[in-house]
Design a protein that fits this description.
The longest helix is centred in the middle third of the chain and has 26 residues, at about 265-290. By secondary structure, the protein is α+β, with helices and mostly antiparallel strands. The strands form 6 sheets. Strands 17-18-16-19-15-13-20-21-22 form a 9-stranded mixed β-sheet, sandwiched between helices. Strands 7-6-5-10-11 form a 5-stranded mixed β-sheet, with helices on both faces. It is built from 20 helices and 22 strands. A hairpin with a 2-residue loop joins strand 20 and strand 21.
Length: about 575
């Protein structure tokens, strides 16, 4: 959900999974009650309301027919080949995704918004509904948040409207589609990677492709599997194509699913290399055909930070921008900006770069904690004093959770909803994975580094403000807690564009330890979205191995009976 003001400025953006507390929020209405009420209260006023959707009317209208075809095809397939039904992963996957159907038309969406708006305005007004091409929404969000005046924009995701890829030229604040749109092209690098994720024992519907990417560093190349998977897709001029080898390649994956996660490290490594090789070939051919030095990369595939970190070394592009929310959540901003432009012909919306567009922590809710015996620890010196206190705790090997200011938009924690820790020892990474996040031991944790020190620690350093790329550490420079098995780190560059409090914490930590880096991971537990409110934050704090909690300007510390063991909250 996103809100753009009358002047075209992005006022708010947040994935609905946060307030709904349901990771990915499958099948939830985009304007759920409770979510839309708060936005109308804060932003609507008495002015007109335009509502934009991130799929075109044509795509929405075709979805019920696609759903019927999928159900009939699955039933027929089960009758013909019941014993091998699951083995043909490609067809099963494609059909299953077709069942995530949208309503029949744009008019059947946003009914909650319409009801609330009519109630507020005497049942006499309904919102203007607009619907936009899915990949165009991706491109608008990415390009208008980029630092480029001119760039080539590549959209690559699981599936858009007719194709999983699109190529645009961005110039003068406008987008021009360069490749020829396809009516139906099922070739998809995103789905290929998701199928490998499923085969490795993870759940793509829960967004667990991250796990496959993290596990890849623990495996080695299976040359036979690589040959099969790499041959499943053909890279043409401006698009991907399915080959005859696709279905046999998918059949190779199913027997691997019966093994445990770590046993599938070679599968993960091989799938990651296939992903990277196809992506780089696609980008190389795109550059060969349309040229340009600047690349804007977006869509769900741009969340693969291991691959993104290799783009500038593996392609002719000189500079790269990946937006703070390249996945489908980011499309809400693109749709809102397209709606604003339609309502304001001839005008171009202003650029935006800050990811801190989400909800704020309620000060009233923080104050209510004292009524239940949970009182903050006094910290003198205002925000500077609070940052110094947090840095002192980090240097003392305490784990600090932070929820202050406006939440980050996108999947990566950038200091506003983060768990911070001392990155110097591998034991800290293991402790956070085991007793804070409650997740697999192979999952990496990210370094947040002061931008001016980036070149001293990373090879081929380029600013990564949204934690969008993994780069290789310089030899001997990597703190063990944030060095992944393959010698990389998915870094966040902390500079003028970043949360000022996070920057102050790292500067104080640098002064105390000599290291301009802190460990940063999202403030949540596995399977749940990032914390959204005080109740979420306190719940995670009290039920995990977090030592210190910062809520707004208040600091809470557990009193432990022995080092590293959570105790009761200080009173």
């Amino acid at each position: 959900m996103a809100v753009v003001g009358e002047d075209g400025v992005v006022l708010f953006a947040e994935a609905n999974e946060r307030p709904l507390k349901n990771k990915r929020g499958w099948h939830a209405p985009p304007d759920a009650f409770g979510v839309v009420d708060a936005l109308l209260d804060r932003y609507a006023g008495d002015g007109p309301v335009d509502a934009s959707l991130t799929w075109s009317r044509r795509a929405l209208a075709s979805s019920p027919y696609l759903s019927r075809v999928a159900r009939l095809a699955i039933s027929g397939y089960q009758l013909v080949q019941p014993a091998r039904c699951e083995a043909d992963l490609w067809r099963a996957w494609t059909l299953r995704h077709a069942l995530y159907r949208a309503p029949a038309s744009a008019d059947d969406l946003l009914l909650n918004l319409e009801l609330r708006l009519r109630q507020r305005r005497g049942f006499r007004e309904r919102p203007v509904r607009r619907a936009w091409d899915h990949h165009l929404c991706h491109a608008v969000t990415a390009c208008l948040s980029s630092p480029f005046d001119e760039a080539l924009c590549v959209v690559m995701d699981g599936m858009g409207e007719g194709s999983s890829t699109s190529v645009y030229r961005f110039r003068g604040g406008r987008l021009e589609r360069l490749d020829r749109p396809a009516l139906t092209n099922l070739a998809s690098l995103g789905q290929l990677f998701s199928q490998a994720c499923h085969a490795a024992g993870f759940d793509p519907e829960a967004g667990e492709e991250w796990k496959l990417m993290g596990l890849a560093a623990y495996g080695s190349l299976d040359e036979d599997l690589y040959r099969d998977l790499r041959g499943a897709l053909y890279v043409g001029d401006g698009r991907l194509r399915v080959t005859r080898g696709y279905t046999p390649a998918m059949e190779r994956l199913l027997p691997l699913r019966v093994r445990g996660h770590m046993a599938n490290a070679n599968l993960a490594h091989t799938a990651q290399k296939v992903f990277e090789d196809i992506l780089m070939e696609f980008l190389g051919r795109t550059h060969q055909r349309w040229g340009g030095e600047h690349l804007v990369l977006t869509g769900g595939c741009a969340l693969n930070s291991s691959a993104v970190g290799k783009v500038l070394r593996a392609t002719p592009f000189r500079r790269l921008h990946v937006p703070m929310a390249p996945g489908d959540d980011g499309n809400s901003v693109g749709a809102a900006l397209l709606g604003w432009r339609a309502a304001n012909p001839g005008r171009t919306p202003p650029r935006f770069a800050s990811p801190y567009l989400g909800s704020e922590i309620s000060g009233d809710a923080v104050a209510r904690l004292a009524r239940f015996g949970i009182a903050p620890r006094p910290v003198p010196g205002g925000e500077a004093g609070l940052a110094e206190a947090v840095a002192t705790d980090l240097a003392a090997r305490r784990i600090v959770a932070v929820a202050r200011g406006r939440a980050e938009f996108g999947h990566r924690a950038l200091g506003a909803r983060s768990i911070l820790a001392d990155p110097r020892e591998a034991a800290m990474r293991d402790r956070i994975n085991a007793s804070v996040k409650f997740r697999e031991e192979f999952r990496p944790l990210a370094p947040s580094i002061l931008h001016e020190h980036g070149p001293d620690y990373f090879e081929d350093y380029a600013a990564s403000p949204y934690m969008e790329r993994a780069l290789r550490w310089r030899p001997g420079r990597a703190p063990e807690g944030v060095r992944h098995r393959d010698g990389t780190g998915r870094l966040q560059s902390v500079g003028p564009w970043s949360d000022p409090f996070l920057k102050a914490v790292i500067r104080s930590f640098h002064a105390a330890t000599g290291l301009p880096i802190v460990l940063n991971t999202s403030f949540n537990v596995m399977g749940r979205p990032m914390v959204h409110d005080v109740e979420d934050a306190v719940g995670v704090f009290l039920t995990s191995d977090i030592d210190v909690l910062v809520l707004g300007d208040a600091l809470f510390r557990k009193k432990a009976d022995r080092p590293g063991v959570p105790g009761r909250v200080s009173r």
